[in-house]
UniProtKB/TrEMBL annotation:
InterPro entries: HAMP_dom, MCPsignal_dom. This is Chemotaxis protein. GO terms for cellular component: plasma membrane. Residues 584-600 have a biased composition (Polar residues). It comes from Pseudomonas putida.
Length: 600
């Protein structure tokens, strides 16, 4: 109901505003939806990309650590391989160069001492031959430890570096070669001796703690088989300290995510050769450190899996396996990275994207609001420009309807649209209406003048009839004073009085007709062309009334004569009839009415 009372301008403004607001809201909503979708896609993709990049980085770091560790082992491997060849060559020259077998054993000891002295990174070197495999004279050197011979005469020499940088040698007892007791690593204590003899390959012994240089140190050994004529005649063992691996693990941890990454180095048996988080765990099985995933990682290591990734308990674990020497068993580098550390940059990016998305949403909402306000203003101005010609037409029609309108002004609207067409035709309508109104005005003025003249004539006619009426009353009054009238004259007078009464009634009816005619003339004056015809008819009626008045006047004159005669006759009769009424007002009235009726 309220909408019906609004102006066209406000209706257009409200409807267009609703449409504009709906469109702006829809566009802004779609834009925000697309923005949120895009932001979610970017966040998801970025999160995935950053995770993959972080994983790739960690895998690369693991491979780099594997290369560093392998390089340390490879240095010892290559050195030991060359030394083994030199020792075999020295043995081959025993017959030609060393006539005394004791000199050969001394040369072997010197060669080992020089090799260890030239490579201080090595903890120790051991050279053990099969019984009588060196010179077939073990029995001659029983108990000569200075020449590297043990209690059985076998050449089993071990050179080691002391804490003060000095070198020391000792003959390994037969018990060391025969000790098959299983150690913490799961290997027998004499694996260093048995492995190369059984596999005929270079063996890397599982690390274990030993008292070296007065300190407890984790070390391992690379053992080379000495093969002559397709027969293993002895072994060369190089002892390597693994404290360097612990330093490598700590350096790798500090270089990855500011130390929040744990780096461990696993042996083929699953022992921790290095662990950046806790050095006290060295030599312990990794499965004890991680009971849930440790066995799986050790199994993957034994299966020679190059890279293996595990995600569990919000921790990413990557295992990079590698052989420390060609053809050797797989060692592994384990990197434990918390998922929160990996996703840290992604979370920062996500927060930045959320902030930018929120800022963009606020900006779009403000921009949409400003656009809506500007659109509403433009719509209001457009509606105002549309309704202005219509209001101009309404004002002109209002002036015309109120009777005070000026038809000379014209609306001005220069645009060639529907409103321009409306204004043009309205101006043309005024062009045609103006002369018609002027003509009607002139005709109405003429009709008004004619009506005034008719009214003047009717007034004069009414005055004349009133005078006649008074004269008739005077005549009737005179007749009242007649002394007497004969019975026949009285009867005639009664009829005459009735006729006069009817004539008087007709006269009053005529006056009423004249009043009605006067009102009709006034009404006819407002009806333009029809008024002229009615005025002419009224003029004719006035002439007829004049004729009637003339007739009444003639009748009145005749009545006067009759009354005079009757009075004379009555006077005459009154002399003879003194009882006859001499004055009869009712008779006079009857005569008057009769006269009026006769005149009518």
């Amino acid at each position: 109901m309220l909408f019906r009372r609004l102006t066209i301008q406000w209706k257009i403004t409200l409807l267009a505003s609703l449409c504009l607001a709906s469109i702006v809201g829809l566009l802004v909503g779609l834009s925000l939806y697309r923005m949120v979708q895009s932001a979610d896609l970017v966040k998801t993709s970025s999160m995935q990309m950053l995770k993959e990049a972080a994983q790739a980085r960690i895998e690369t770091q693991g491979e780099m650590q594997a290369i560093k560790i392998r390089s340390q082992f490879m240095d010892a491997y290559q050195y030991g391989n060359a030394l083994a060849k030199q020792l075999l060559m020295l043995r081959g020259l025993a017959g030609a160069e060393f006539s005394d077998t004791g000199n050969l054993r001394d040369a072997m000891s010197v060669q080992l001492r020089n090799a260890l002295e030239s490579n201080p990174d090595l903890l120790g070197l051991s050279l053990v031959f099969e019984p009588n495999a060196l010179d077939a004279k073990d029995a001659a050197f029983v108990g000569q430890s200075s020449r590297g011979s043990n209690e059985a005469g076998r050449f089993a020499l071990y050179w080691s570096q002391l804490s003060d940088g000095q070198l020391a040698s000792m003959a390994l007892p037969e018990q060391d070669m025969a000790n098959s007791q299983v150690g913490p690593s799961g290997e027998a204590a004499n694996t260093w001796w048995m492995c190369p003899r059984s596999t005929r390959e270079v063996c890397v012994i599982e690390p274990d703690f030993y008292e070296v240089r007065g300190a407890r140190m984790l070390m391992t050994s690379i053992v080379f088989p000495l093969i002559v004529a397709d027969k293993v005649i002895g072994t060369l063992s190089i002892d390597i300290g693994l404290e360097r691996l612990q330093l490598l693990s700590q350096e790798a941890s500090s270089s990855l995510y500011e130390g929040r990454t744990h780096v461990g180095i696993l042996t083929p048996a699953g022992l921790l050769a290095a662990y950046s988080a806790d050095a006290s765990k060295l030599g312990h099985p990794y499965s004890r450190l991680d009971p849930e995933r440790g066995p799986e990682l050790v199994e993957q290591l034994s299966n020679n899996t190059r890279l293996h990734t595990l995600r569990d308990n919000d921790v990413l674990r990557i295992l990079a396996s590698f052989p420390v020497i060609p053809g050797g068993k797989q060692w592994g580098v384990i990197l434990d990275v918390p998922e929160a550390t990996l996703t840290g940059p992604a979370e920062v990016l996500k927060a930045d994207l959320d902030s930018r998305t929120a800022s963009g949403a606020v900006f779009e909402l403000c921009l949409g609001f400003l656009a809506a306000i500007l659109g509403l203003l433009l719509i209001w101005l457009m509606a105002r420009s549309v309704t202005r010609p219509i209001l101009g037409i309404a004002d002109m029609l209002k002036n015309i309807a109120s009777g005070e309108g000026d038809l000379t002004p014209r609306l001005r609207y220069t645009q060639q649209d529907e409103l321009g067409e409306l204004v043009g035709w309205f101006n043309r309508f005024l062009d045609k209406l103006q002369p018609i109104i002027a003509e009607v005005k002139c005709t109405s003025q003429a009709a008004s003048d004619t009506a005034n003249q008719s009214s003047h004539i009717a007034s004069k006619t009414s005055i004349g009839m009133e005078q006649q009426y008074r004269q008739i009353d005077q005549v009737a009054t005179a007749s009242y004073q007649m002394a007497a009238t004969a019975q026949d004259v009285a009867r005639s007078a009664a009829h005459a009085a009735k006729a006069a009464h009817d004539a008087g009634q007709a006269t009053r009816d005529g006056l009423a007709v004249i009043d009605q005619t006067t009102n009709s003339i006034t009404t006819l004056a407002k009806r333009m062309n029809t008024a002229m015809d009615q005025l002419k008819s009224l003029a004719k009626n006035s002439e007829q009334i004049g004729l009637v008045i003339e007739v009444i006047r003639a009748i009145a004159e005749q009545t006067n004569l009759l009354a005079l005669n009757a009075a004379i006759e009555a006077a005459r009769a009154g002399v003879n009839r003194p009882w006859f009424p001499r004055h009869s007002p009712s008779s006079g009235n009857s005569v008057s009415h009769t006269l009026l009726e006769t005149a009518a």
